[in-house]
């Protein structure tokens, strides 16, 4: 079994509604995102999945979030844009685009800082 990881970053602002602390105010992060894909086999040249396939899907998703106020995006109008909810949203979005035999999306990890991350999987 092989686990392929692809990472990228995006910068955005958010506001945590109902939070009793400074994060209830509008603030921003440069989020780092890691997508983990598990593949059982490799092809004839020894690749399980081309990194560029995952990079493309991740980049397309990140472009919709980058330099946005997340609370104003349709997905987060009724859902608090916590790192947990961002990770789940990204997982489900990427999962729909991975259609490669013997490969599946294992998890998505979202860091809101160098010291704090959340991993989502189903």
Q: How would you portray this structure in words?
A:
By secondary structure, the protein is an alpha+beta fold. It is built from 2 helices and 4 strands. The chain has a 4-stranded antiparallel beta sheet with strand order 1-2-3-4, with helices on one face. The radius of gyration is 15 Å and the shape is elongated.
Primary descriptors:
single chain; 122 residues; alpha+beta; four-stranded antiparallel β-sheet; 2 helices
Characterize this entry briefly.
With 122 residues, the chain is of the alpha+beta class. The chain is 23% helix and 34% strand.
> What is the rounded Rg?
15 Å
Strand content: 25-35%
Secondary-structure class: alpha+beta
Distance between the termini: 18 Å
Low-pLDDT residue intervals, each spanning 5 or more residues: none
Global shape: elongated
Per DSSP, the total helix count is 2
Provide mean pLDDT, rounded.
96
The helix content is 10-25%
Largest sheet: 4 strands, antiparallel
According to DSSP, the number of beta strands is 4
Which H/E pattern describes the elements? EEHHEE
Biggest sheet strand order reads: 1-2-3-4
């Amino acid at each position: 079994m092989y686990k392929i990881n692809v990472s990228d970053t995006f910068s955005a602002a958010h506001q945590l509604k109902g939070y009793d602390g400074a994060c209830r105010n509008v603030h921003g992060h440069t989020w780092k995102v890691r997508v983990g894909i598990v593949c059982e086999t490799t092809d004839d040249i020894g690749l399980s999945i081309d990194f560029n396939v995952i990079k493309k899907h991740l980049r397309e998703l990140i472009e919709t979030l980058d330099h946005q106020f997340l609370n104003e995006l349709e997905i987060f109008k009724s859902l608090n844009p916590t790192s947990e909810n961002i990770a789940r949203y990204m997982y489900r979005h990427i999962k729909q685009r991975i259609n490669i035999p013997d490969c599946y999306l294992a998890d998505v990890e979202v860091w809101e800082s160098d010291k704090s991350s959340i991993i989502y999987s189903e």
